[in-house]
């Protein structure tokens, strides 16, 4: 057995006897390595209270058997040192703590062909399980734009925004990765079994929890840090004031990733959490996939066009020409001198400008004086 395989078995053991995001155990594994930390658990189980529970489970752990059964089901256990290990996860060592969870996972269970080391440009799209039609539409369209631009989409496979994000990426033919709070062999939520089976066959499902693990509430909080760490930025489409998506955004901020929020109606409870992120300066406002590409792209790349109305005939006129045009009556003709007084310009200059405006059809000259041309009269705002 190679050193890497010994490390894998040791880390699989630790994974089986500890909770995802367990700060003490993950930190010691990162510092000591898997085999050495296992020695500590076996030889000094009472060294710290946090280690006692993990040490008590060692006798029932069967890492080789779990790894073998997982491999037969197309599930691999990726650890630091593997070519597939995403370096971005190592940033969790310096990202602090949220809800007593944190640090670098000892490994990740992966089901599906998409490799984790191909997520360098990935974007997380997360949000409310109780999303609105607006939220689903925005999430789906945004994921499709990101996917079409070559960026994998990562989410949590939950109802609502997560599902819409995965669906949008699949529609665009782009890779998408679901990060679960349970084992990758479980369909959670059950209603998404078909989608999860599709992701397992063509994309990837990822979890820090071992195969067979149940989706306990605390595991969702640990899961969120993985979503944030695997991606370059996190977009929150809809989130109420108490939402797991806000926890993902907090992890992204602590990891110094770009956090973005999609505004919703000011009266929508589903968007209150997003609005607070934007108001507090914790998230950049985005309204579509192009905004996300611009924020995450290299300087000068993926620049979106500034929204503006198309130029009208008057927009091409000089300021002084528009000043004269505004002084010309709609229907009752006025003399050049009268137009000059209203415009506040000299009569000679106004005469010249009126001639140019007449040539372009903006005004017309009648025996009694000047009035607006037929094309300009209907556009006057009253």
TrEMBL record:
Q: What biological process terms from GO does the record include?
A: DNA-mediated transformation
For this protein, the record's SUPFAM superfamilies field holds: MCP/YpsA-like
Which one Pfam family would you cite for this protein? DNA_processg_A
| Segments crossing the lipid bilayer | none
Q: Domain named Smf/DprA SLOG: which ranges?
A: 77-296
The entry assigns this protein to a family as follows: Belongs to the DprA/Smf family.
**Which PANTHER family has this protein been placed in?**
PROTEIN SMF
NCBIfam families hit by this protein: dprA
Name the UniProt record assigns to this protein: DNA processing protein
């Amino acid at each position: 057995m190679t050193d890497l395989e010994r490390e894998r078995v040791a880390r699989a053991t630790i994974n089986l006897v500890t909770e995802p995001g367990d700060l003490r155990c993950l930190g010691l594994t990162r510092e000591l390595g898997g085999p050495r930390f296992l020695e500590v658990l076996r030889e000094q189980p009472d060294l710290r209270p946090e280690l006692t529970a993990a040490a008590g489970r060692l006798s029932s752990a069967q890492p080789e058997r779990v790894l073998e059964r997982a491999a037969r089901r197309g599930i691999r256990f990726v650890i630091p040192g593997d070519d597939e290990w995403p370096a971005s996860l190592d940033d969790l060592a310096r990202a602090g703590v949220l809800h007593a969870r944190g640090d670098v996972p000892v490994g990740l269970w992966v089901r599906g062909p998409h490799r984790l080391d191909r997520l360098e440009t990935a974007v997380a799209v997360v949000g409310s399980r109780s999303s609105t039609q607006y939220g689903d539409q925005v999430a789906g369209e945004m994921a499709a734009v990101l996917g079409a631009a070559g960026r994998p989409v990562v989410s949590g496979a939950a109802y609502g925004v997560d599902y819409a994000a995965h669906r949008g990426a699949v529609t665009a033919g782009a890779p998408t990765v679901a990060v679960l709070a349970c084992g990758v062999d479980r369909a959670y939520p059950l209603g998404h079994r078909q989608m999860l089976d599709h992701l397992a066959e063509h994309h990837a499902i990822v979890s820090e929890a071992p195969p067979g693990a149940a989706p306990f509430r605390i595991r969702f909080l640990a899961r969120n840090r993985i979503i944030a760490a695997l991606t370059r930025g996190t977009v929150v489409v809809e989130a109420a004031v108490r939402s797991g998506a806000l926890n993902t955004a907090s992890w992204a901020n602590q990891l110094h990733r770009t956090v973005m929020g999609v505004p919703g109606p000011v009266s929508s409870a589903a968007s209150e959490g997003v609005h607070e992120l934007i108001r507090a300066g914790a998230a950049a406002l985005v309204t579509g996939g192009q905004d996300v590409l611009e924020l995450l792209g290299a300087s000068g790349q993926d620049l979106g066009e500034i929204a503006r109305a198309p130029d009208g005939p008057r927009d091409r006129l000089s300021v002084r020409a528009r000043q004269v045009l505004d002084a010309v009556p709609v229907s009752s003709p006025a003399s050049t001198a009268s137009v000059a007084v209203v415009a506040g310009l000299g009569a000679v200059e106004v005469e010249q400008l009126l001639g140019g405006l007449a040539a372009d059809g903006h005004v017309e000259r009648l025996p009694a004086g000047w009035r607006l041309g037929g094309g300009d009269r209907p556009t006057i705002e009253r």
